């Protein structure tokens, strides 16, 4: 790719013929950040917008040369920040999209983002970046419906898959994740916003040394909900926190206490096995004003990576039930007919 064409954009034009098909067999690599001429509007590098019927397949590689961006520490246009790190590959305001077979490497920020789209099918992808690379989510889903991500391997420095506001009917299965921060719903409710996620199914996922396994994270002061979520057949290989609900998400540790919260309900954890890197393998930290409701733990077996140590659970304002064998026992999960 030449330095004169640093941002690739494909949008619907009058008379376009569908479906649009691309077969990528080559290696695409951008040049230096300083060569970008995007007038500070570097939202993404490769983008497809306003399309109905798109197929991108092949064995090619998209390498974002992220190491040249990561050292800039530029997430937004703050003082002295001339370039915002771009997402590597974006699908937006589109429907009936299929992506398969590609490799994505070292994106400046998120590798792949699906925004305001429906009927997106991604499979047999490989995404990789160093475990210490900042904000390099593998796949981020935002305001999108009917999204499937199957048979994909993700190694990155942030969430392997993150599911943001306005997303529903999300099916994720047969995923290998690690290094990375696991599969996350959220964060939701930042700056008091009303945000929602529902009808998410995550199945047949292996986590390798991730900081989290399956996680739901929300900010204090937010509104909305995360509900009707199922995590099943999950294997943890020394993840630091295999199961996490965190209604007090605050990555910078300087958040004031607030009473409102995004409501979390109808969440099922079933057939989750493996090892935890630390003692607390199950953490359910919920708000007093908006407790977590209808949390189900069924057939859980999480042991300490160190066979000489135990695993335990921590709960705060979490209501639900246990079914089958559950280890650690999660006695802190409160059964209450009112919830």
UniProtKB/TrEMBL annotation:
One of its GO terms (biological process) is carbohydrate metabolic process. Keywords: Cell wall, Cell wall biogenesis/degradation, Glycosidase, Hydrolase, Secreted. It comes from the Eukaryota. The keyword Membrane does not apply. This is Polygalacturonase. One of its GO terms (molecular function) is polygalacturonase activity. It comes from Hibiscus trionum. It is found in: Secreted, Cell wall. The active site is at 181. The keyword Secreted applies.
């Amino acid at each position: 790719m030449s330095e004169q064409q640093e941002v690739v954009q494909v949008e619907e034009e009058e008379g376009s013929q569908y479906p649009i098909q691309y077969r990528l067999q080559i290696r695409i690599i951008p040049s230096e950040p300083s060569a970008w001429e995007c007038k500070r509007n570097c939202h993404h590098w490769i983008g497809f917008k306003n399309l109905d019927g798109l197929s991108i397949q092949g064995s090619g590689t998209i390498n974002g040369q992220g190491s040249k961006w990561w050292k800039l520490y530029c997430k937004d246009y703050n003082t002295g920040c001339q370039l915002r790190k771009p997402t590597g590959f974006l699908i937006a305001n589109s429907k009936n999209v299929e992506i398969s077979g590609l490799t994505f490497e070292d994106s400046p920020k998120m590798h792949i983002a699906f925004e305001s789209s429906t009927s997106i099918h991604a499979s047999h992808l490989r995404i990789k970046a160093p475990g210490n690379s900042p904000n390099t989510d593998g796949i981020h889903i935002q305001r999108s419906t009917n999204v499937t991500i199957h048979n994909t391997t993700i190694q990155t420095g942030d969430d392997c898959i993150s599911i943001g506001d306005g997303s529903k009917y999300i099916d994720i299965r047969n995923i290998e994740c690690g290094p990375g921060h696991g599969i996350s719903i959220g964060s939701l409710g930042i700056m008091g916003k009303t945000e929602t996620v529902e009808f998410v199914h995550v199945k047949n996922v292996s986590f390798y040394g991730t900081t989290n396994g399956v996680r739901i994270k929300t900010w204090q002061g937010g509104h909305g909900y995360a509900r009707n979520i199922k995590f099943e057949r999950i294997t943890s290989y020394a993840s630091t926190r295999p199961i996490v609900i965190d209604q007090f998400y605050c990555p910078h540790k300087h958040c004031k206490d607030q009473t409102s919260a995004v409501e979390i309900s109808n969440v099922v954890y079933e057939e989750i096995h493996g090892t935890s890197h630390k003692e607390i393998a199950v953490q359910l930290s919920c708000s007093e004003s908006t407790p977590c409701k209808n949390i189900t733990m069924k057939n859980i077996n999480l042991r300490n990576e160190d066979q000489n140590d135990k695993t335990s659970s921590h709960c705060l304002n979490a209501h639900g039930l246990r079914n089958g064998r559950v280890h650690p026992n999660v006695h802190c999960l409160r059964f209450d007919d009112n919830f």
